[in-house]
């Protein structure tokens, strides 16, 4: 793991959080948004539609230190036919543009809604393809540690987890400052239960996959085994911390799933923030270990 | 279409003098930390009990490695800006003006061939001394080898020589990139199977 790889840790996680957040919002919108008061839905849309392009732009900016000649990144789509990095750049730009248009349409309150729905659909498609191409970048046939089924699964799980937690935070922020009826409090409580349980399940799967991937790589032997053994020798603490923070985050997700919704009691909001921060730290450490596990099949 | 060029390495005769490494560095004016051609020191073995005595059963051999100018160059395949490309004669080159320094080729190449030049901020790699080749001269490393371990030429001709292999420890599976390089292995290469073997000069290469 080299210092410049931290730029990629931040970039990949921010982009995955952006894709996940838009997905979580889309599932909510295409589901049954009427369970929440209109004012909360409007604020929720506003928060997420500003958050997504903001995360993407931050992600793209954070990736710049990784390049020694960022100005030449204009050429980066030149090998679209063969290079997954070219495809990732193209899809990243498509996703950023579509999410920016969505934000502008929402801010200017431009109707009709079906244009927004189409745009959300296009953004979701770009988002899925972006996550897939992002994972394919690392699935190099010459790097056996990365070239496994675990890479795309963990990238999609990161997006789902961080997106769900971001939306949980957004709902709680949107609900602040309004007087709610009992029905809307129950609806928001139900939503938080879903978000809490979803986050806990996704994080559990993520940790399980990480464990199983290590077992699989050791079983596969050769360079894969050497890489995992070296990783455990060099970075035992980040591995332990990743698991610890992850399990604490799962606990907090279950707590906020069980707490009754209230916009006057700060307990739920604190639990969601803590769960988000712990899950994010666990993901950062996981991604750090992913980059640190690099070992070429050659010299 | 021009015929694919490549290197021939007779590891059995290599003494590990590193003249090839120095000639390459001098010819291409490479900065500190960059070696387009590297001599890998492979060593291994163990103590073996024979009757009542313990006998040292160790071995060492050297392997001169540079870019293999692969027939399926993964560095060129992954490069997003097409800064790395392959000529008709198979030589894989870097167009420095297009390289954005993303290091992706460095991850992908299993031979450690693309190396980052911190002075220019772009990747650099063995160019098979194409300027010499165009003048009908051999690459600098080939000329410098006093043991005549290194040769270069059309890969099909080199492959037709007896006793050659495409891969030995520590080189990767040749099916990954179809390297345009052939090796005549050192006699101790077979001892790398089933015995503790490692690269002795990891920091150097």
Protein architecture, described:
The complex is a heterodimer of chains A (299) and B (205). With 299 residues, chain A is mainly alpha-helical. Chain A has helices spanning 5-30, 38-63, 84-107, 113-138, 150-175, 182-220, 222-234, 236-258, 266-292. Chain A has one domain (5-292): Formate dehydrogenase/DMSO reductase domain (Formate dehydrogenase/DMSO reductase fold, Up-down Bundle), CATH 1.20.1630. Chain A is 77% helix and 0% strand. The radius of gyration of chain A is 20 Å and the shape is globular. The mean pLDDT of chain A is 90. Chain B is an alpha+beta fold. In chain B, 17% of the residues lie in helices and 27% in strands. Chain B has helices at 19-28, 74-78, 104-108, 130-134, 140-144, 155-159, and strands at residues 5-10, 38-50, 53-65, 84-86, 92-94, 115-117, 122-124, 150-154, 181-184, 197-199. In chain B, the strands form four sheets. A three-stranded mixed sheet of chain B has the order 8-1-9. A three-stranded antiparallel sheet of chain B has the order 3-2-10, with no helix packed on it. Chain B has a two-stranded antiparallel sheet with strand order 4-5. In chain B, strand 2 (38-50) and strand 3 form a beta hairpin. The longest helix of chain B is centred in the N-terminal third of the chain and has 10 residues, at 19-28. Chain B is globular. At the A-B interface, helix 3 of A face helix 2 and helix 3 of B.
Detail the topology: elements first, then pairings:
The complex is a heterodimer of chains A (299) and B (205).
Chain A: H1 5-30, H2 38-63, H3 84-107, H4 113-138, H5 150-175, H6 182-220, H7 222-234, H8 236-258, H9 266-292
Chain B: E1 5-10, H1 19-28, E2 38-50, E3 53-65, H2 74-78, E4 84-86, E5 92-94, H3 104-108, E6 115-117, E7 122-124, H4 130-134, H5 140-144, E8 150-154, H6 155-159, E9 181-184, E10 197-199
Parallel strand pairs in B: 1-9
Antiparallel strand pairs in B: 1-8, 2-3, 2-10, 4-5, 6-7
């Amino acid at each position: 793991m080299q210092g410049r790889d931290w730029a990629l840790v931040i970039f990949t996680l921010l982009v995955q959080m952006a894709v996940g957040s838009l997905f979580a919002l889309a599932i909510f919108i295409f589901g049954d948004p009427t369970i929440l008061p209109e004012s909360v839905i409007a604020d929720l849309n506003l928060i997420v539609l500003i958050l997504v392009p903001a995360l993407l732009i931050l992600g793209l900016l954070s990736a710049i230190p990784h390049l020694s000649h960022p100005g030449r990144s204009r050429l980066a789509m030149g090998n679209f036919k063969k290079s997954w990095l070219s495809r990732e750049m193209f899809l990243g730009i498509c996703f950023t543009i579509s999410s920016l248009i969505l934000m502008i349409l929402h801010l200017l309150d431009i109707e009709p809604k079906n244009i927004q729905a189409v745009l959300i659909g296009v953004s979701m498609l770009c988002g899925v393809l972006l996550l897939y191409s992002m994972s394919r970048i690392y699935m190099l046939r010459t790097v056996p540690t990365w070239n496994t089924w675990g890479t795309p699964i963990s990238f999609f799980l990161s997006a789902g987890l961080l997106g769900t937690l971001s939306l949980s935070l957004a709902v709680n922020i949107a609900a602040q400052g309004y007087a709610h009826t009992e029905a809307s409090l129950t609806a928001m409580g139900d939503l938080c239960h879903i978000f809490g349980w979803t986050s806990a399940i996704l994080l559990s799967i993520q940790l399980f996959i990480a464990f199983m991937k290590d077992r699989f790589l050791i079983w596969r032997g050769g360079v894969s085994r050497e890489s995992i053994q070296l990783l455990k020798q060099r970075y035992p603490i980040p591995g332990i911390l990743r698991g610890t923070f992850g399990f604490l985050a799962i606990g907090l997700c279950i707590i906020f799933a069980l707490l009754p919704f209230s916009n006057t009691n700060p307990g739920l909001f604190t639990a969601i923030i803590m769960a988000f921060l712990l899950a994010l730290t666990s993901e950062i450490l996981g991604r750090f270990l992913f980059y640190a596990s690099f070992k070429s099949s050659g010299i | 279409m021009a015929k694919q060029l490549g290197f021939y390495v007779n590891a059995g005769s290599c003494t590990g003098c590193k003249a090839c490494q120095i000639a390459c560095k001098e010819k291409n004016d490479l900065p500190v930390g960059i070696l387009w051609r590297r001599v890998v020191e492979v060593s291994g073995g163990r103590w073996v009990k024979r009757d009542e005595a313990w006998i040292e059963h160790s071995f060492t051999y050297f392997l001169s490695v540079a870019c293999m100018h692969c027939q399926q160059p993964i560095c060129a395949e992954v490069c997003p800006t097409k800064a790395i490309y392959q000529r008709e004669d198979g030589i894989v080159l870097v167009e420095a003006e297009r390289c954005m320094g993303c290091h992706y080729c460095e991850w992908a190449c299993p031979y450690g061939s693309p190396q980052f030049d911190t002075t220019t901020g772009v990747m650099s790699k063995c160019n098979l001394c194409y300027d010499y080749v165009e003048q009908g001269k051999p690459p600098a490393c080939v000329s410098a080898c006093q043991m005549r371990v290194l040769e270069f030429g059309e890969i099909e001709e080199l492959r037709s020589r007896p006793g050659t292999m495409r891969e030995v420890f520590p080189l990767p599976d040749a099916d990954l990139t179809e390297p345009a390089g052939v090796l005549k292995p050192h006699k101790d290469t077979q001892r790398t199977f089933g015995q503790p073997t490692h690269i002795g000069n990891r920091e150097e290469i």
